[in-house]
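Handout, page 2. Input:
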Amino acid sequence: MGKFDGVLLISDFDDTLLRTSAAVRSGGELPEIPAYNLERIRYFMDNGGRFALASGRVWVSFVHFLPMVPTNAPCGTANGAAIVDPATGKNLFLHPLPDSIGGVIEELEARGPRYACELYPADNTADVLRPNDFTRNHAHISRYEFREITSFSQTHPPFLKALFEGEYGELEALRQYIVSRPWYSEYEVFFSSDTLLELIARGSNKGTMVGKLAELCGVSLDHTYCIGDNANDLPMLQRARIAFAPSNAVPAILESGATILCDCMEGAVGQAIDHLDRIY
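Output:
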């Protein structure tokens, strides 16, 4: 019996386990995951804990990072639209975008946008309308290939999510437009960084994923803990027994009541495990 038997810790990846936002903006290489994070994750797992990653990334842009991180639980991807078995790459759970997404994308395209739109079919491919520097940097650091398309008709459903990439001001105007539309009742939209705006199915968020992931791991929500830094992590943090956040988190997270830890590159995930070490 380990002291963390029946305990689940779910961590966001980008800017929580490892700072990636600077590389997305610059196109540079990623830093290494802080050694303290890796040390404490291994300690947590060696003592019976289940450690899971929950990312806004889809599988195709996430699978290459798994060898860098010790995990022993399924992975949440696409902001909760999918849960994947990391050993096989098979989907254990899917909550794709509604069938109305084709009309939605065509309406947004008719506005003459200047941002890129990545569409992620459930078969783990990536199609992009108007790829820009953010798209290319994202693909470079995530080590995936995308297919450039010129219209929605060239891609294929079902889709896990749509990702809009551009400057913050343009994306904020897009967000405001989306939430004003009558079809928004079927969707959720939020920033996962200041250059990335996510569109997912209503209810297909990291909060819903927490319940599904805990169920798959056989762990009670009373012993489920989460750590994240950005707006897309808020539903996940609200489901946790204790929510943690690195000090570099966005204001909405810092003001959410989460336990604030050190900066992500100083080992915030490791510090969350220190906290659990004192509890158990």
